[in-house]
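Quick one before lunch.
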Amino acid sequence: MMCLFAIRAGAALCSLLVLSFSYRGYALSLNYYDKTCPNVESIIATAMKNAVAKDKTVPAALLRMHFHDCFIRGCDGSVLLDSVGSNTAEKDGPPNVSLHAFYAIESAKKQVESSCPGIVSCADILALAARDVVVLSGGPTWDVPKGRLDGRTSQAAETRSLPAPTFNFSQLQQSFSQRGLSTEDLVALSGGHTLGFSHCSSFENRIHNFSSTNDVDPSMHPGLASSLKSTCPINNRPRNAGSNMDPSPTTFDNTYYKLILQGKSLFSSDQALLTSPKTKSLVSKFSSSQDAFYKAFVKSMIKMSSINGGQEIRKDCRVVN
Ligand code: HEM
Ligand SMILES: *[C@@H]1O[C@H](CO)[C@@H](O)[C@H](O)[C@H]1NC(C)=O
Ligand SMILES: *[C@@H]1O[C@H](CO)[C@@H](O)[C@H](O)[C@H]1NC(C)=O
Ligand SMILES: *[C@@H]1O[C@H](CO)[C@@H](O)[C@H](O)[C@H]1NC(C)=O
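Model of the 2-acetamido-2-deoxy-beta-D-glucopyranose complex:
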């Protein structure tokens, strides 16, 4: 098999990517739509630019949506399917409070369909959109390998296999390694938490009744803990209450790693990156070099977004053909 990608990397990375690209049987390529839908990337980039101009929360939503898609059945657009009859789809499963902006992908799909009907998968549109929103937030850019197929199955119960914000390091490591992702990928991809917002429920384990001896997680900065406690009281809490992931939630930067070192990250799973020497040193490295973070993020995004597994090119991202 050839190495199809013009990434700025050595042969070792290239062969590693080829291995993961062919996971479940087919390879992705950078020039996949060159003949069949040459304008696909510019159509999607314009659609994303317009969506983000109207709603600053779209980038965080789509980056997270792509992560969820890839972690369940591979990046096959299963997260985009609607519930049908008695089948509850992933998007209506438990961690659904924060998945939103599906309309941005649906509208990009409509525009792509009018230019090249039946050619581009919803899974590819989501992967390209995830790249575009990182760029629109001031982050790095990269070439996205394409050729994903859309899946025909989406089950709410499977969202239970997503990593939880209460996970410790070994649980996180296991969740990532089950998908062919390394601890470096774990640290780099967690940097997605530079964008967006979290509801109280995702970090309340750390601020109320943390353990039999501590009401608050002792690894959390006391100032942050008291401010989160007032935003997220046990009772009478507004349904949408929560906190931005960092003070610059629409800018893709390395602030997230600086906050972890100060005990100011939101989730146990963020703080857990300090509990193994290897991940701790990566957190330090990314906190002091945004460039190192960007390079690692790009490499890991290409790996994560190449976990594939679909069967068809859906006509409508919400329903199977
Ligand atoms: C390492 C394991 C991960 C865990 C445990 C985790 C957990 C979470 C949780 C609990 C939320 C908040 C949901 C809410 O309460 O609204 C969240 C938000 C988010 N996550 Fe993660 N996540 C992980 C990895 C990732 C990865 C790999 C990415 C992308 C590369 C990502 C991107 C995001 C983004 C952008 C948001 C903000 C969403 C928004 O504002 O709409 N996360 N994550
Ligand atoms: C989210 O999931 C919960 C629990 O599975 C469910 O009761 C609720 O209806 C879902 N909400 C949405 C907006 O789909
Ligand atoms: C991580 O959590 C799992 C499950 O709760 C537990 O069995 C394990 O001992 C924990 N590991 C560490 C290092 O705390
Ligand atoms: C805190 O946890 C203890 C033991 O798990 C439980 O008995 C108690 O009701 C909890 N308190 C609150 C306020 O949830």
